[in-house]
Design brief:
The chain has 250 residues and is an alpha+beta fold. The chain has three domains: 42 residues, Orthogonal Bundle (Arc Repressor Mutant, subunit A); 97 residues, Homing endonucleases (Endonuclease I-creI), CATH 3.10.28; 68 residues, Roll (Endonuclease I-creI). 46% of the residues lie in helices and 23% in strands. It is built from eleven helices and eight strands. The strands form two sheets. The protein has a four-stranded antiparallel sheet with strand order 1-2-4-3. The protein has a four-stranded antiparallel sheet with strand order 5-6-8-7. The termini are far apart.
Length: 250
């Protein structure tokens, strides 16, 4: 469909004033794709390279929601990954579909750390992938790299460690919500059944296991390594601490 040159110029005038493509399209009754194309061509003619807006705390030096970041860091180290390609950039956290609260918490943490990137949910086989789209997640998670996390060295940058030190329970909660669980064991003694809760954290990365246990040590939580990939918290006082600050997935 052809549009009058005056309509195009009016659209560009509105866009330069800061109106969104959607608002201009609705105001002028023009398809949004057409408005986007006009804007693209106008930038090209003026030699302007488009840079997507960002609210990345590392790039802008703005204050970071450190509690939300500590939780998100735990989720990322457990069940998250970043895709960073020329035309595709996003952070993904994989959550079991039955844990609706965890799905919401992951999305909210992403928004609290960076509000501008869009967040979506993708239904997968048995899980929900919570995705946030921006190239700037690599600024906040320098642990990103080629290959699987357990096949490369994972260490925290000093600024990340400072956040974990300030919000250790949020970090532990993120790790448990990703690669951990709370279960109830039972045994029979002298004919009577006894039940007792315990927490497990499982990860194939020795570095991530150490980040988990080092933080537990600072919090006074007793733990035991049951095999190469598994950490158990079973002492009553330590389980009570975990219950007070972490709790089961939901």
């Amino acid at each position: 469909m052809e549009h009058a040159p005056s309509t195009r110029e009016h659209a560009l005038h509105l866009l330069r004033q800061g109106l969104t493509n959607r608002a201009v399209a609705e105001q002028l009754n023009v398809p949004r794709g057409t408005v986007g194309w006009w804007l693209h061509q106008d930038r090209k003619l003026r030699g302007i390279t488009y840079e997507r807006p960002t609210d990345c705390p590392r790039c802008l030096g703005r204050e970071l929601d450190s509690a939300a970041y500590a939780y998100l860091l735990g989720l990322y180290l457990g069940d998250g990954h970043i895709v960073s390609k020329p035309k595709q950039h996003h952070l993904s956290i994989f959550c079991t579909a039955s844990w609706a609260g965890l799905v919401d918490a992951a999305g909210q943490a992403m928004k609290s750390v960076m509000a501008l990137p869009s967040v979506s949910r993708v239904q997968r086989n048995g899980c929900i992938e919570v995705k946030s789209y921006t190239r700037h997640w690599v600024c906040l998670f320098p642990q990103h790299g080629p290959g699987k996390k357990h096949e490369r060295r994972i260490t925290l940058e000093p600024w990340q460690q400072a956040i974990v030190d300030a919000h250790p329970w949020e970090f532990i909660r993120g790790l448990i919500h990703s690669d951990g669980c709370r279960i109830t064991n039972w045994t029979v003694r002298t004919g009577k059944r006894y039940e007792y809760p315990r927490y497990f954290f499982t990860n194939h990365s020795g570095d991530i296991l150490r980040l988990f246990t080092d933080t537990l040590d600072r919090l006074g939580v007793e733990w035991k390594q049951t095999n190469a990939y598994n950490i158990s918290v079973a002492r009553r006082a330590s389980v009570a601490l975990m219950d007070a600050h972490v709790g089961p997935k939901y």
